[in-house]
Amino acid sequence: xxxxxxxxxxxxxxxxxxxxxxxxxxxxxxxxxxxxxxxxxxxxxxxxxxxxxxxxxxxxxxxxxxxxxxxxxxxxxxxxxxxxxxxxxxxxxxxxxxxxxxxxxxxxxxxxxxxxxxxxxxxxxxxxxxxxxxxxxxxxxxxxxxxxxxxxxxxxxxxxxxxxxxxxxxxxxxxxxxxxxxxxxxxxxxxxxxxxxxxxxxxxxxxxxxxxxxxxxxxxxxxxxxxxxxxxxxxxxxxxxxxxxxxxxxxxxxxxxxxxxxxxxxxxxxxxxxxxxxxxxxxxxxxxxxxxxxxxxxxxxxxxxxxxxxxxxxxxxxxxxxxxxxxxxxxxxxxxxxxxxxxxxxxxxxxxxxxxxxxxxxxxxxxxxxxxxxxxxxxxxxxxxxxxxxxxxxxxxxxxxxxxxxxxxxxxxxxxxxxxxxxxxxxxxxxxxxxxxxxxxxxxxxxxxxxxxxxxxxxxxxxxxxxxxx
Length: 470
Ligand code: FAD
What we know:
The chain has 470 residues and is α/β, with parallel strands linked by helices. Helix content is 31%, strand content 25%. It has 13 helices and 22 strands. The protein has helices at residues 19-30, 45-50, 52-69, 85-109, 168-171, 188-199, 219-231, 320-334, 364-369, 385-389, 422-434, 439-443, 454-463, and strands spanning 9-15, 35-39, 113-116, 118-122, 126-130, 137-146, 150-152, 165-166, 180-184, 203-208, 235-238, 242-247, 252-256, 259-263, 265-268, 272-274, 307-309, 349-351, 356-361, 374-380, 396-403, 409-419. A hairpin with a 6-residue loop joins β5 (126-130) and β6. The radius of gyration is 24 Å and the shape is globular. The structure holds flavin-adenine dinucleotide. Flavin-adenine dinucleotide binds next to α1, β2, α2, α3 and β4.
């Protein structure tokens, strides 16, 4: 990271250079504000270095391996593919490093001052920086944005050693692919890793304490993912508690529900905790909740006037794109532009396991719980031409609409998808939910043919009561 000697006074000082922090820095700089950003590690935070980008890159490696294996279906006779894992890791690192460098250049081109070190906030919006290449410096912001992000949670009895027991941080750079792996936690990240490792040939067991994997997801979509996982030999054990593990000569034996499970590696994927333990905060009115989150109002304002907090460190959905928006919102508020608060119930979610999952708005279960009378439609990819062409016909689009007084499908409450490329297809569903479109609004729109978005179009048309293709 390039170090620029500090000037003392800034319009905004940002602590943390992940998506929340760097979005605030870039957006603020675009508005002409003088910005300093403090980062103690690598620019880009979790997302660029040990999160979204490396995970999706390795998932694409798994998809490429699978496509080559399936090439015979298309009459392409490729020899049995083999994985050259060091090359795969090298490609992942090349993309990560390229993005980190690109971000540094962008920040520099916007004249953001980068301070390398640990930032701590004190009274009067003074930020001290220490322990990094910038040495001991002090800066003062008219406004301060706290964006320290999150780190993986661990489990008692499962000390992370990086070779047998690991979190997402270590798994994303694992030196060789394990023969078998237990993934503790069947949430979004756990399911992405289960899918990734299984597609690369590892025997995977998912251990989840809750009754289902992907908790909170519409149950019809969970069924799609579970069916696919099980069909590929992923062992999903739900409602189980892991009690500990006993390492052996190679691998370890996990005690789970009174049984022993022998695996080469354990991936602890039980969520992340806010990284708020060492932020200073003496002499400020910034408060931290029992769960470690920085407490904010609907506008990301902390209890200290002139101090905002964004991203994984506040109790909002832990997603990079939510952090981006919160960083922008903080800047808009600093500029007194009165931005509308984020409607967190309607943010887009994307899970990159196979099949992919993407949704915005209420699931059927959540809509009913919220008291809505709903009409739902499930339209499947298995009749869609493009999905058949790309050899990925599993999955569905499910639309949840509010029932009108005359029993028709009205306002769209949720759009939920599991299937091929759905993370790229959610956009229309996201807009429909956030613009409070009705089924009639959406059904009259034309979907290009042949595309997979025709399945969303079919769902909307079917909800009008007159299906086209079915
Ligand atoms: P972070 O990205 O954690 O960045 C915080 C930064 O602040 C870090 O660089 C840290 O070094 C720095 N910092 C902390 N304290 C200080 C301090 N006191 N002084 C100086 N610097 C400090 N989200 C998605 O939207 N899509 C995905 O596909 C996705 N995939 C993921 C896959 C994995 C494996 C993981 C782990 C996460 C994934 N996420 C994904 C979540 C996403 O990475 C986070 O939501 C996002 O990075 C949060 O951004 P942030 O800026 O709040 O924090």
